[in-house]
Amino acid sequence: MRFLSNYQSVFSIEDHKLYFPVKYDLLWRMKITVVSGGLSPERDVSLSSGSLIANALMASGHSVAFLDVYEGVSLPSGGIDALFHVAGDGTRFSCTIPSTEPDLDAIRRRNGNRRELVGPNVLEACRSADVVFIALHGDMGENGQLQAFFDVYGIPYTGSGFAGCLLAMDKDVSKRLLVRDGIRTAEWVLLKLSEGGAPGADLRKFVLDQVGIPCVVKPCSCGSSVGVSMVESSGDLDRSLEEAGAWESSVIVEKKIVGREFSVGILAGRALPPIEIVPKKGFYDYKNKYQSGMTTEICPAPLDSAETATLQKLALAVHGCLRLGSYSRIDFIRDEAGDFWCLEANTLPGMTPVSLLPQEAAAVGISYETLCDTIARLPVKSC
Questions:
Q1: Does one domain contain both 278 and 305?
Q2: Which backbone phi and psi does 82 adopt, to 5 degrees?
Q3: Does residue 340 contact residue 306 with C-beta atoms inside 8 Å?
Q4: Which residues does 205 contact at the CB level (< 8 Å), separation at least 6?
Q5: Which of 44, 101, 285, 344 is catalytic?
């Protein structure tokens, strides 16, 4: 794959071998287990991403099993092998994303309040595959737990290793590393809220003194803008802290950087074209991210060549700083002075019809099917 100045690309077997140096034959069809769902607030996003990934991999000729990692699966009469489907057998997976976050307590009750995060027969289906395509978002999918679990069993998987996932998912830790490497990120404080998320007068004063208004309140380790609030007045601070605290007791409060929002995907060590994100109303929250028509996304972003190069270089620097793997997506804000500020890194970016990474890949001629196939062929292999 050669990235050209006009954002076109040529994708051939020889280019694939050159830029993605993995020892395999591109005509080799794999047995792939796609895992999604789980008990994250981003569960529905994950299921949608996973279903599309599974369909794309089948269309590329692979044999695919699609599983909810928490709910697991009952074995059909044919055993584990009967879980895997191929194009032409009539199987097509589909999941939609509601406009509100899932009821995780109801999902636990439906599964007998089972505490284990990996459901029945999931391990067996993953061990029988050539590679596991991780399509989870948030919690165990992105904090390194699932990756470490697979490492213990020697199961190859897609994305980043457990260390990179852990570093990127914890917003406080990742921001500290970015500052160490001289990468701009908004000033912030980390708060440990009491049960129920009630902030208290002393905590409120601390936030106002250290960060001020306007600010952004977010759970420390959630994604998809779950629990995120823009605070424009001191009177909104308590409510925003309580909302974030409902998802996680560790909460980040950072200065609000006003400007244009961009995202840059990284694929196999190369930066894709930046995309600009313009919500039609409010900010890029859960609803605006995943409901069609709520946001205008422009790719390639309307930046000149120098600005594009700067942003791509920054994205690669963030990717390297956090020890990320074969692909990621890095989000930025550009302030009125023209400086780019890193918002966060996504180790498992969304792969839905309105997700950013597939749009960026398409801008250089990489189809959705080719994108999924490429990621599947670049697994993390445990020692």
A1: yes
A2: -75, -10
A3: no
A4: none
A5: 344
Q: Is 344 an annotated catalytic residue?
A: yes
Chain segment 80-118, per-residue pLDDT in tens = 999 999 998 999 998 888 878 888 999 999 999 999 999
**Domain CATH code at residue 223:** 3.30.1490.20
**Structural domain tally of the chain?**
3
112 part of the active site: no
65 lies in the same domain as 211: no
Indicate which CATH number applies to the domain containing 143. Answer: 3.40.50.20
248 catalytic residue (yes or no): no
Catalytic residue among 350, 355, 368, 377: 350
205 and 273 fall within a common domain = no
Q: Which of 51, 63, 229, 346 is catalytic?
A: 346
Based on the residue annotation, tell me whether 111 is a catalytic residue of this protein. no
- For residue 346, indicate whether it is catalytic: yes
Choosing from 142, 328, 329, 373, the catalytic residue is 329
Q: What tokens appear for 282 in the block?
A: 């409010």
Q: What is the pLDDT of residue 199?
A: 59
Q: Which two three-digit tokens encode residue 372?
A: 């999924």
Structural domain boundaries enclosing 192: 188-255
Both 150 and 23 in one domain: the answer is: yes
How many Å apart are CA 370 and CA 361, to the nearest integer?
Answer: 9
Please tell me whether residues 85 and 54 are part of one structural domain. yes
CATH number at residue 282: 3.30.470.20
Task: Specify the pTM.
Answer: 0.86
| 224 included as an active-site residue | yes
Catalytically annotated residue among 68, 331, 360, 373: 331
CA–CA–CA angle 337, 339, 341 (5° rounding) = 130
144 is catalytic: no
